[in-house]
Task: structure prediction
Amino acid sequence: MELELKSGGAKPGLTEGSTVNNQEIDSAHHPAKLNESIEDVSKESISAVSDLSSFGLRRSKRVPVTKSKLEKEAEEAEEAAARAKSERRKLAFAKAKAEAKAKAKALEKEKKMVALKKEKEKERLRKKKLREKEKEKEKLINQKKANVLKANALKAKSSSATTTLTKAQEQAEQEPPLTNDNWSPNMPLLSTAYKTQQSIISRLKNPNMRTLPYAGDIMKFMSFINKFYIFFDMDLLNLSFIDFEIGLDLYPVIPQEVGLDTMNKGSLYQDYIPVKEVISCQDKMNLLFLTLLRLLVNKESAKSREHKPLASIDELTSSKKLYSKYLLNVRENAKEWGYPSEWRSLPLDKIDLSKPKSQMFKENDKSDYVDPKIPEILTENIFEWHKNLPLTNESDPLQNSDLDKIGILALAPDDRVILLRSLINWCSSYSIKVHNEIHYLSHFKKDPTFGIQTQHVPRYFVEGPNVTYAKYIKLCEMVQKRLEVRSKKKYIKKLLAEGKKEDFSAKMKLLKELKDQLNSLNKQEKEKSMIENYNDWTKLFEGELPDNPLSNPFEDELYKLRSHEFFIGRIPHIGDFYMPRLHTYSDSPVTVSTYTDLRALEDILNKYSSGEADVQYLFENYGQLMSPSFKLLYHDTPSMIHDVAKGIKSKGKVYWYEMCSDAESLLYFISYLDYKITPPKEKGSKKKKEEGETSISGTHDDAKLLEEEGNDSLDPNESMEIEVTDPTINKKPLPKEYRFNASRLKLKMMQDFLSRFYYILKSFETLRVQYADMKPGKRTLRRVQRRNITYNDSDLDNESEEEENNDVEEYGRRSKRART
Result:
């Protein structure tokens, strides 16, 4: 609708007579509506020109943006920029404020450090001044003391007064301590040195070398009999290593490295040993078996330490079922006591019993504990372990019914060893009599001076005779000084003046006599005199220390349980050597035992090597009570220690070797050691060649050879020659490196001992041949010499044939099963 505006009411910008639509008026008063009208006009204009194809133009697809939206976006951008700017200003202000605060703190800290340094410097200067003042005071005091000492010295010289003692003089006047060293005749046998050493078996390769897989067990049997001899019959106290081999039907094995053959390889003992001896050895094994059974089953708690054998050789023929009642008890309790691993169902060399056989879940439960204080309430998994049960009754050697009839000979040789070893282990754990004896031997009022060690051996076999004598002489000098210092003390003088301390007074008189003897002697003569007057010096040792290096290492029962009686030498980088022989602690009348102190042992060795003692002397001193046979064994200790440290199983491995088994092979081994100690010398002079000197391994008499060579093995500058043509013998000496010097020295010590010990062993072998069926003693020997002797060879042959036939019949009757 059009309106005409009057002149008086017209608005500015409108001429008179102009007409305005109502829509325009509304849009003028309302901007929004104005914008909408503008948009309508623009749309109409756009539609008006939309059809431009006639002019050859293309219509644009771009949508025009209204002016109001652009303005809004611009305003929003400006607002966002303003906000960002204000935030940056705030951050810059906060950063500047924090930096200013940090600088202020640093300045304050620096001021404090400077102040602290000034205080420390003041304190240092103050202390320095104090130290200087103290030093000046000490100088003045020392100067005064020095002046006083000078004055006192002058007074002492003029008036013969005693001077003050210095620290060195005070130490000289103190009694030297004896507790800082081991003075006992035994030494601990430690294996720590072998941890860094390697042994090579081929270094000792020689024709007499044999492997002994069972040697460790037989050594255990002999050691048990030796230590607990009061339970065993005299027939078992003279057993040798060879007797065990014959009685248990065990045979040495030639090692592959040697590659030699012998006459007796593949033959049985009864093929080249008299049947009577074989039967005797087998009977002794049954006697040992019976004694161990009774020792294990016997429940008597009597603590008597008298020598009361539990079984005798005569009892073996008294009953057919002598072992059955004891074996019944053993079979009932054997599983509880502990079955040997060889008689169990699982092979330990293939199965590790420390690992489970199977488990219920594939992975272990690693969740948290419900209650950390009681971790046992949660099981990670359910495992099934190997059951290493004993063998079935059909294959279990202990269930063999023939054991009740013929004893240990009913088993195979290996099972015999296993059963004897198990019986000894069970006796050590469950026998009341053995427990009483162990309790007595382990509950003394004193301990060894070197502490409780696993094993110990005589000192003279570890350090050698020379070092042992030097140790004894040093002890004599220290005890002499202790007594002299003690005698100068005032309270001792007072007690001696009052007639007290009679024992000390007697010691001082004896010491004065010994000193008077030593004053006129040189050093070597003094040492010799101290050794000769050993009994007098031991009187001075009483009350000072319990042992001395020259006392008997087997006399004090304190060392009995842990002593290695069969030990004769330890060689670095090689191993240990043993000669197992019984009669160490027995109460037999044998007076030629080599288990004694160093002085007595040297005396025995010198008597036999010089010819002063012979076979007749050995017979008169009950030499037949000791076994005439022996074996020298070598133990590869370094290899065993390395295998144990690495966790390597020892089953199937051999660490024991035989070096010799009679006097002839011992002499060969003594000469063979020369190759290891020094390089072999060239062959002897032409004179020896003309005399047709034969090899030691030949058929000549061993004793005559030593007499002809004049004990060359005792001279360190000379060596006994071996003419060996066997290429398998290792003639190479030990390496020339410095670390093998100790090995050469110990080999020389062992060679010297064996060279003299050879004569004793040779005498025992001769005694066995000449006086086999005679009772020992001087009266028996004189009576034998008065007997009529027949020289008819045919009579002797007939008698020997009859005896041999009787022995064969008896052997076939009593040990048929053992022979098969």
